[in-house]
Amino acid sequence: MGSVLTADKSVLKTLFLDFKQLTKVGLSVSVVFTSVAGYLLGAETVDYSIVLLLSIGGYLMVGASNAYNQVIEKDIDAVMQRTKNRPLPSGRMKSSTALIIATVFTIAGIAILYAINPKCALFGAISIFLYTSAYTPLKAVTPLAVFVGAIPGAIPFMLGWVAATGSFGIEAGFLFMIQFFWQFPHFWAIGWLQDEEYKKAGLHMLPMDKKDKGAVAQIIFYTCVMLLISIAPVLKVTGKLYIYPITAVIVALLGVLMLFYGIKLYKSQENIDARKLMLASVFYITVLPIIYVIDKFLH
Predict the structure, then answer these.
(1) Residues 168, 158: Cα–Cα separation, whole Å
(2) Non-local CB neighbours of 74 within 8 Å, separated by 6+ positions
(3) How far apart are CA 102 and CA 132, in angstroms?
(4) What is residue 191's three-state secondary structure?
(5) CA quadruple 184, 173, 124, 129: dihedral sign
(6) DSSP reduced 3-state for 51
(7) pLDDT category of residue 3 using cuts at 50, 70 and 90
């Protein structure tokens, strides 16, 4: 009896871990975090029922996108060392099972976001459509896939504002642009680190498909654009989205940290500096929403 229970627990644990991998729980939670931050920025009074709906709906939409992505890239994932042990390429889960999960997540996610307001549902649907139908297949065709993928990737911060206000104005546009331009240094740093793996799988994840100073020059350029957009609210040109000068200085320093590692990578072209840039970018997109929210509640 004890051995049967142990075996059942082992099976359940494997299923749970496979589910986490299929829906990329870590990424999904980070997206929810950014969406909630966007909501707090836009809300005059916090409605915790909307926060809950936004969290669940956002998680389901990202989870669905990741599940569809892994179904489409099953054979590609089997080629790469870091992805070959995912549920589908390893054979632990059938593609049909993953598709059912993705479809249920999509329907439930759109319905939950619609309960907040129709615009939230629309942006959620656009996000999952672009990620699965445009970004995923384009990765095997052109480096421009990163630009396409940056659109759904930039929706979460803005989605929170739309959930709070029911409208898409200049404020939501700026939140979108911050996350949009952030993605280029972030994903190109990952592309630099995984260049051999991506090339082996036939994916195009670096500018011009080259691991050279030209690619890093673009990383530096987009980091500068991201930095400027992130501090623009201090100039009171972004509607109701405004930050204090001291906040702008702190945000600028976060951007300068990314810029520092971008310049180091340009000089060295070493993986260690690409990894530091990638980590700095994660730190940036994690801390920036917190700083914005704290600033808002100090007004």
Answers:
(1) 8
(2) 88, 89, 95
(3) 11
(4) helix
(5) negative
(6) helix
(7) low
Predicted confidence at residue 8, as pLDDT, reads 58
Q: How many C-beta atoms lie closer than 10 Å to residue 202's C-beta?
A: 11
Q: Which two tokens stand for residue 163?
A: 């959930």
DSSP character string of 74-124 = HHHHHHSTTTTTSTTTTTSS-HHHHHHHHHHHHHHHHHHHHHH-HHHHHHH
pTM across the whole model: 0.92
* Residue with token string 């951007």: 255
The answer to whether residues 60 and 86 touch, using CB atoms and an 8 Å cutoff, is: no
Lookup: tokens for 261: 């590692």
CB 178 within 8 A of CB 254: no
Q: How many CB atoms lie within 10 A of CB 5?
A: 9
How far CA 179 is from CA of 21, 100, 182, 226, 294, in Å, comes to 24, 30, 5, 8, 18
pLDDT for residue 188 is more than 80: yes
What phi and psi values does residue 290 have, to the nearest 5 degrees? -65, -45
